[in-house]
């Protein structure tokens, strides 16, 4: 075998090793699957060990925000039929409000339903707003934040 | 009227670009100087026309001409004039126009600056450049026309996204584009050199400064982007392995590899084929970056616009890759190495290793960014790849490059004796090993933190000593004027060292992420929260007007050992054109750390919910900018001696 082809062989093996290493590390802990609220409700015990992401819309009237505990609970669904109860400990994100799409990441934890430690609000690209309405005020802000 | 003039200017520049390409091709074919000269002037005219178009667009923004859809979507009458001017690149269409004007400007420089020095490859280079112009003009005229009108004309625009109303965001896109477009120039010279069948290294020498400038702006653009995310998005950090961030990191990684490997070709005549492949990849990746940012194909907080220009970008990337690789394949006989390294310990080999690692890093980022797309498209499984994946692979590789950054400083070309290595590296290595052993014992801290900061310290010390040595020689002079002159000596080396110091500093800053703290809590007026050695006293809420937004803030006094340090006002900002309030963070900055406060909500019972972060060494990251600027000033002012290896050898 010539010197050159040995070089290429070593290079090729190296690249293959790196690629395989990448693949192996992706398929283990570093990857999170998305599930629907329906899938989680169908077999909650299955998701009590595995961290997953669930995407859904926040149900109207389901939001409770307890500032003293920084505890946010709400229900999400994809089909408006199966609702998954989510508890999130942390501050409420800016765009969080009823009807908004969210992604939560966490596990199912017994009675309390889905406990999330990550909450992402889907940014809607379309800011639908009447350009002549300049009446932003506190009351509106409270309403948008889901205050009772 | 003015708007129509702008659109007409774009149309005219499209026609002229077609003419330029045609004139260039037939000029080369018939060996006609007149046609080539004519092409050069048409490139100049295209720059003039695009400038007209750009001014017209800016005028439409300043005069709030909401008959133009792009203006109506990205501006409003209440916007401060400064942001009206910068809003031109606040959306897809305008940012393509910005890209186009930078490209046209660069092309005009190339058309006149290098006509005599690079005569054999100049026409081909210009033809390649004009194809990039053509692509952008097609986008601007067809798919995403910034001058498109809307009916009925709205009375008020929808306003510039408040997230973009920030100085960091104003300069972040132009810097990135200067970087992306900058890499178009070495790419065009490389292709021009292949098309003309030249076997020498001219293109490397000619484009040295272009490569430096491109790298510099890409780096600055990314740091500004990180800084913008830090002060504007309110989640306490500046980098999240978001697809759009990754999109700019990929060309940066191959671009950095290229920056180093061209030195090997310039000095030793090696790595010719590798350099060709690198510049093709870097340019293709910078287009891919724009595609990812602008097509909205990947879910991302940054992809501000969704549009259907995706396929056009993919076609352009495919053309770059296919054209580039075929050309390289056809000329593969021209890439023989001239001076091979003698020993294992040599600058060449260290640079080669550095290149392999950079490309591996780029591949990792590419894989992690694109894999979820493939999984969804092929297996119909929706997955998410996040920070742990990138950190687990890129952290060790990053540490390796930083280590090389120190070691290479002590290596010579061809071969280096172990004694030299020992002499130059013993002290820094000793200090950083001592640091790495003692820190976990005395202070605690994870492996990742200790290794990353320890190796960064090593690289910092080696480069610092090297810089000190270089200046020591200069300062040994007695009279002032020769001292001053000596300061300007050895510019290339000092420039490189300064940039490396910046990188080492930035890496130290990154290691701060491993011992940051964060918490979320609610305070009632006059309550105190203790955190990371500080006490925060909540005084109540406060309303005030700043620029065009009404702010509603929580007032917090920062205390340390009962001493009042400052008062912070994390706020919600209400912009007249937006339904959602924006979060305005407040930061108590010190040299070694930030106390970072973002207001989550002001509650009806008078309490405030806050996110609080303790971010150590984050300012090192921003401070590294100073070193990049200084280093670049040194490096760019250095003019490589026009010794051509080809002549040197024969």
UniProtKB/TrEMBL annotation, chain A:
SUPFAM superfamilies: Heme chaperone CcmE (SSF82093). Residues 128-148 are annotated as: Disordered. It comes from the Bacteria. The keyword Cell membrane does not apply. GO terms for cellular component: plasma membrane. GO terms for molecular function: heme binding; metal ion binding. Signal peptide: none annotated. Keywords: Cytochrome c-type biogenesis, Heme, Iron, Membrane, Metal-binding, Signal-anchor, Transmembrane, Transmembrane helix. Heme binds at residues 123, 127. The keyword Ribonucleoprotein does not apply. GO terms for biological process: cytochrome complex assembly; protein-heme linkage. Residues 128-142 have a biased composition (Basic and acidic residues). Pfam families: CcmE. It is found in: Membrane. This is Cytochrome c maturation protein E. It comes from Candidatus Lambdaproteobacteria bacterium RIFOXYD2_FULL_50_16.
